[in-house]
Amino acid sequence: MMYILMSFIMIMMICILLMLLSYIISNKKIMSREKMSPFECGFNPFNYSRMPFSLHFFMISILFLIFDIEIIIIIPLIITINQMNMFIWLISIFMIISILMIGLIHEWINGILEWSL
Q1: CA 20 to 30 Å from 70, out of 5, 11, 56, 78?
Q2: Mean pLDDT, range 63-88, rounded to an integer
Q3: Does any domain span residue 58?
Q4: Is residue 69 part of a domain?
C-alpha cells in the first residue's frame, strides 16, 4: 500500500513539474484583438455574415470524409486477415481500393484537387 501511495505522489510531482515547466517556457504574448476574436473556417467574424462560401472548401471536406470512412472500412479487414479466406479477403480489399481510386481519379479529372484562388 505504501508503494502505491509513493508512486502516486511521484507521478503527481512529475505532472506538476512538467506543467510548471511548460508554463515558464511557453511564449506568452500580449493578447491582441485578432487573438481574442473567434475563428470560424477562415471567415472574419466581423464581416458580412452572408458572404458566399467557396464550394472548393466543401468538396475538400467531402473528400476528407470519404477517405476517413475508407479507414473505418479497411481497419476491420486488416484485423480479420487470419480469419477469412485469403482469396476473398484480397478481392474485397481490391474492390474497396479500386472504388476509392476511381473516385479520386474522377475528382482529379474534374479539377477538384487543384487549389487556385
Answers
A1: 56
A2: 83
A3: yes
A4: yes
Q: Indicate whether 70 belongs to any domain.
A: yes
- Which amino acid would we find at residue 55? L
For 59-71, how does the pLDDT look when each residue is reduced to its tens digit (9 = 90+)? 788 888 888 888 8
Instruction: Dig out the grid coordinates for 106 from the structure.
Output: 474522377
Residues spanned by the domain of 102: 54-117
SS (H, E, C) 72-107: HHHHHHHHCCCCCCHHHHHHHHHHHHHHHHHHHHHH
- pTM > 0.70: no
106 assigned to some structural domain: yes
Q: Which three cell numbers stand for residue 44?
A: 472574419
| pLDDT value of residue 36 | 66
Count of domains in the chain? 1
